[in-house]
Amino acid sequence: MIAVSSCHDKLDEDLENTVYVGKTDYANTSNMMVPLLGAYGEFQDRPWEDFPVLAVRGDDVNAGGLGDQQDFAEEDKFNYNKDFWMFNSVWQNLYNDILAASSAEAEVTKYREFASDTDKALADQYIAEAKVIRAFLLLYLSRTWGAVLIPKSPDPTALLAVEPSTKDEVMQYISDQMDEAIPALPSLRPNERKDIRGGVTRFTALAVQALANLELKNYQGVADATSQIISSNRFTLEPDYYNLFKIKGKLNNENLLELQYSDFGTASGDNKAYLFAFFGPESWEPKVAGAGGGWGFYEPSMKYIKFMLSRGETTRLQTSVLFTDRGIAEIKKDPAYATLPAWVTNTTLSGDKFNNYNRAMFASGKHYLPSDQLTPGRADYGTNKNFTCIRYAEVLLMHAEALTQGASGSAMTADQAVNAIRSRAGLGTLSGVTTNQVMDEKYAELAMEWGTRYYDMVRLGRFDELSYDGRNFTEAKIYLPYPQGQLDLLPTLGDN
Fold first, then answer.
1. I need a surface site. Which of 58, 126, 293, 461 has the fewest CB within 10 A?
2. SS3 state of residue 191
3. Model pTM?
């Protein structure tokens, strides 16, 4: 992990996707997909440090408490070090892929000049896909740092002259970009696409637009976007919540965007994988002997676990949290939780046993692949598992929140949206759903996923929820500081 601190400064490097310039026969439109595939490749190849930095600050999750990467643990406590290598690396990673998407858009535009009418429509689709990829990355960049640079071209050096845009300006830019992209995209689920399996579609763009408008508190904009997704009748909630986050969840009918990985069903050889070891236990007894463990750096919070127990949750808690004996004992120290359901055990439904380890008392079940779902011969923790980015469940809950905040929508009532989620979780129905109830449902449903809980609490000004277990959250802690490496490189940041 320490070695990663020597990451290259991507802003000082030429992007791979810029090599087409001056060397490509743009009249050969049969190659028009190539630059888009390059953008997808950059997007899918997420460095492991991105997600932790973007997602660790909510009251649903804690950083692993012991060992190295102390600045990561401090981020979780809202104590930020602008010199922390992970902050600088994530900034660079996001911008590298944002620029890669911009480069793909520019290259496809050059092909379009030589395209037939049919191929022009295809070019417009590819350009739209690049815009959606860029928008998703910009969304998280701005959620994390607030005012950021919106690239005006794929040339990294052009960022030197770009003034930062406020978070609201970035979110409006994203929403406007999705307005441009949506008409050109296929009205399919990602798993229905035949050309780029799992690629973005009109509904992915609508979901990104809804997320951006949620940040703007433009609740009618949220409801307009989510209503179109719901009314399409193309998406369903996967009945098996436990396996939604495992092999069965790959390209599921619930997923609007996911990072795709594969070991190609072979015991050895090529393996495209996310480094799920970050989430794995330092000590376990896997059902399949020889399956590898992990680093223990991402822990569901005690606050979240007690919240779920108090609601009588089984399905979602059993899926989201992997217990150790030490963690169970710690829960029982609270007299209100001295007696736990019999299913609370250190052995998962799949038969893997999580032993006590130093760094954490619990592990994230949403980033766990049972050892008996590993391809025989593969041992790395979680390998062959996809990484979900946007689910239909989140679309339903955004829709419900928008309606409780005064928006109107024709696709579904707030009660219907929330109760669909609760029904899958084995909970009773609600009537006259309030915003507070929607937020509780989002907490239960989306914990450990992409920092959703943190961004919700910040947006609603519920800072007291984030001030838990000795933490003291204030408005001044909403955004990470600009990495010192970027302040040195990009002079316009210094004035912001």
1. 461
2. helix
3. 0.94
